[in-house]
Model the fold of this input.
Amino acid sequence: MELDLVEISPTAKPPVCKIVDYQKFLFDEKKKLKKQKANASKVVVKEIRFTPNTDDHDLNFKFDHAKKFLEGGAKVKAYVFFKGRNIIFKDKGQILLLQFVEKLKDYGKLEQMPKLEGKRMIIFISPLKK
Done:
């Protein structure tokens, strides 16, 4: 009949086996894996950029965007970009990012404290679980 003995669950006592067509069994397993991957949630990261001299109105405007992103389930990567001699205002950038996080505390939580990478000071904010 051209069927094979396939071990389904080797850890069970006694092991579970099935008599099936092995190629069809492999095809079905591949199909199941593909379906699981398609249903898996993908993490979306949205970016918001600031400069050390960002004003309050601009901060509020960007806050509204970040709030929408977090409510939609996306992570937010906020960073302060230091251009030229602005790198001397590191403390100003850090204060700006911490203010931003403080405003967003009802919508998301801070994953890591502000960290300087090259000319950028970066933070990640993940949405709160519903």
